[in-house]
């Protein structure tokens, strides 16, 4: 499979899940919509995973080589702490620069109390789709055109606009960290570990407190 075909497949799948989820929750709010979104997200993630397995060509980030499995895990777990620190820094900057309130997880925790399996969408399916789309496809392919820093900035900003435009500065910084983790190991598995870990910790903390 070519890099171009892979990019089209992954981005199309991500956009279909993103738009489809918004439409489902608009027309069927409540538990029905959450179940529909969960099924759509998990199905889209599995499809994207299959598309990703078909790609045999390395992206610009992967040409330097793949780190060992233990190195990828270490960077991924370390990335959880890095992202949490960056989130705190981003929230402080947004409060100082824009007087923006700190982000809350009230809506997500309420949804999880209604449909616990919605956690599959929030903690696994959506992070997987986002890492494939924004890191492996956008960052991975742009790096050879704009350079690593330019690609990280562009992919980070697009990630922010798609996932949390209200807190775009924090989300952009987080996206850049995920790109850095990908660059360090040559594997999208590394930022995926960090992404899943951050969401699991923050949502778990919000639910229990």
From TrEMBL:
UniProt keyword annotations, A-Z: Hydrolase, Membrane, Transmembrane, Transmembrane helix
Domain CAAX prenyl protease 2/Lysostaphin resistance protein A-like: 116-197
Matching Pfam families: Rce1-like
Statement: the UniProt record of this protein carries the keyword GTP-binding: no
TM region positions: 7-28, 34-52, 73-93, 105-126, 138-160, 166-183, 190-208
Annotated GO MF terms: hydrolase activity
EC numbers for this chain: 3.4.-.-
Cross-referenced InterPro entries: CAAX_protease, Rce1/LyrA-like_dom
Top-level taxon: Bacteria
Sequence similarity: Belongs to the UPF0177 family.
Name used for this protein in its record: CPBP family intramembrane glutamic endopeptidase
Organism (species): Lacticaseibacillus hegangensis
């Amino acid at each position: 499979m070519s890099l171009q075909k892979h990019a089209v497949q992954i981005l199309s799948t991500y956009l279909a899940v993103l738009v489809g989820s918004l439409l489902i929750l608009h027309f069927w709010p409540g538990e029905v919509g959450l179940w529909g979104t969960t099924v759509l997200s998990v199905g889209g993630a599995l499809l994207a995973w299959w598309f990703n397995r078909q790609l045999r060509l390395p992206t610009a980030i992967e040409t330097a080589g793949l780190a060992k499995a233990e190195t990828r895990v270490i960077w991924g777990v370390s990335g959880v702490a890095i992202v949490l620190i960056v989130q705190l820094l981003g929230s402080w900057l947004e409060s100082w620069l824009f007087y923006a309130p700190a982000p809350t997880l009230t809506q997500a925790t309420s949804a999880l109390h209604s449909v616990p399996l919605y956690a599959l969408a929030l903690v696994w399916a959506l992070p997987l789709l986002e890492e494939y789309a924004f890191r492996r496809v956008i960052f991975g392919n742009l790096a050879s055109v704009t350079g690593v820093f330019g690609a990280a900035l562009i992919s980070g900003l697009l990630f922010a606009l798609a996932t949390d435009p209200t807190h775009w500065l924090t989300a952009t910084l987080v996206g850049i960290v995920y790109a850095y983790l990908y660059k360090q190991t040559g594997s999208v598995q590394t930022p995926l570990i960090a992404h899943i870990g951050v969401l699991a910790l923050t949502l778990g903390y919000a639910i229990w407190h």
